[in-house]
Structure formats: C-alpha cells, structure tokens
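Support request from a user on the community tier.

User writes: "When I paste my structure tokens into the form, the page sometimes reloads and wipes my input. The last time it worked, I copied everything first. Here is what I submitted, just in case something in the input itself triggers the reload:"
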C-alpha cells in the first residue's frame, strides 16, 4: 500500500458505507465499545468495516486510518455545529446531518474531541496484538488533515444540486408534456369547430342554390303566363 493511497480522500461511496455500517452498529459509531469484554468484538467490527470500505471505489487504507477518519469526521462536524451556536442546520451535506443526528446530537461529551473520546481504538496494542486476521492492520498511518474533507463535501453538495436540477428538469418536462396535451386537445376542438362551420357553409350554399333554382322557375312561369296572355288577346274577335 502506497503513501498516496493512504492519504487520498475517501470516495462518497466509501463515506456512505461507513455511515451505514455505523448506523447498524451504533455502539461502535458512538465509541461505546470499551473494556476488555468488548475489545475483541470492536476489533472484529472495524476489521469487517475496513474490508467493506476498501472493496469500494476509493483509496485502500489500513484499519487504523479508517478509525482515525471516523473520529476526525465526527470531531469536525461537532466543531462546525459548535461554531454556529449549536445549529446543525448549517451543516453542508445530508451525510454530515445524518452523522450529527445519529451520533452527536445526544452525545454527552460534545466538548471533547472525538479522537480523545475514542483513544482506546487508537492504542497501538489494539492493532498489534496476536489476534489472527486483525494482525494485518499494523501498518503505519499518515496524519489526515480535515481540509481534505472539504473537497469531499463539495462533491456531495454538487451531487445533491445535480439531483435537484435533474428533478426540476423532470418537473419541467412533465409540465411541458401536460401543456402539449392541452394544446393538442384545443387543436382537436378547433378542428371540430372548423368541420361544423364547413358543414354550415355547405348547407347555406345549398339553400342559396335552391333559392336560385326556385327564382328561375318563377321567372319561367311568368314568361309562360305572359306569352299565353298575348296569344289570348291576339286571337280575340274584333
């Protein structure tokens, strides 16, 4: 494992996996698995989490690195809330808000750093005891600076905004489709009205044609009457 892979930032997928795992094992997430009776169980859970997180897209780190990352992450979130007068709504991502709600909101030791609170996890003997598969986690760990998390948070914010934009776009497309449907119905009604108007004009034209025919018949009748009258008077005796 290279120094670069240890020091690189966790991916969003890895951070989500850590939070989901801690939600399933709240005692581990809260740093409450203390004492000799819990030590082996705690070690097994961290080893399991390390295998899960290292199998995802992102850096591969030894177990101690992930323990420190989790402690530092909680410490950073706690500091952000404290610096904003205890208002968790100022947290910049849903993941940070979830960590606050699950592991920090009811934490009675909010004024201590999470690294100190979970110092029993950072003890070298925690990793170097002769305990089988956990022995592999004795690799040295680099110090992680919290500013590295800023990029991760910005990435999460960008993804959240992207999801919102895609949702707005879907709503706009839905509204456009509805407007197109309404327009199609209006055009259909207009076509029906045009057909009714055309039939009315056709009937009116037929009526005018009938009137014209009747007028012609009346004119012919008048001519016949006139011719008859003329013949009658011309044949009368003097």
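"...and here is what came back when it finally went through:"
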């Amino acid at each position: 494992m290279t120094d670069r892979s240890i020091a690189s930032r966790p991916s969003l997928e890895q951070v989500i996996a850590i939070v989901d795992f801690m939600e399933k094992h709240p005692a581990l997430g809260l740093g409450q698995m203390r004492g000799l009776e819990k030590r082996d169980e705690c070690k097994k859970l961290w080893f399991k989490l390390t295998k899960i997180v290292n199998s995802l897209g992102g850096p591969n780190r030894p177990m101690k690195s992930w323990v420190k990352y989790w402690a530092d992450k909680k410490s950073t979130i706690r500091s952000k809330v404290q610096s904003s007068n205890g208002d968790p709504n100022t947290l910049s991502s849903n993941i940070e808000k979830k960590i606050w709600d699950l592991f920090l909101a009811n934490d009675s030791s909010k004024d201590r750093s999470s690294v100190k609170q979970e110092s029993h996890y950072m003890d070298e003997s925690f990793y170097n005891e002769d305990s089988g598969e956990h022995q592999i986690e004795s690799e040295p760990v680099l110090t992680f600076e919290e500013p590295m998390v800023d990029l991760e948070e910005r990435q999460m914010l960008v993804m959240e905004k992207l999801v919102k934009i895609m949702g707005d776009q879907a709503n706009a497309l839905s509204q456009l489709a509805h407007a197109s449907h309404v327009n199609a119905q209006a055009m259909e009604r207009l076509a029906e009205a045009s057909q009714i108007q055309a039939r009315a004009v056709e009937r009116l034209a037929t009526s005018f044609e009938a009137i014209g025919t009747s007028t012609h018949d009346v004119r012919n009748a008048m001519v016949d009457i006139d011719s008859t009258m003329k013949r009658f008077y011309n044949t009368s005796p003097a």
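Agent notes: The reload is a front-end session timeout and is unrelated to the input. The radius of gyration is 44 Å. Residues 1-6, 110-117, 129-149 have pLDDT under 50 and may be disordered. Escalated to web team.
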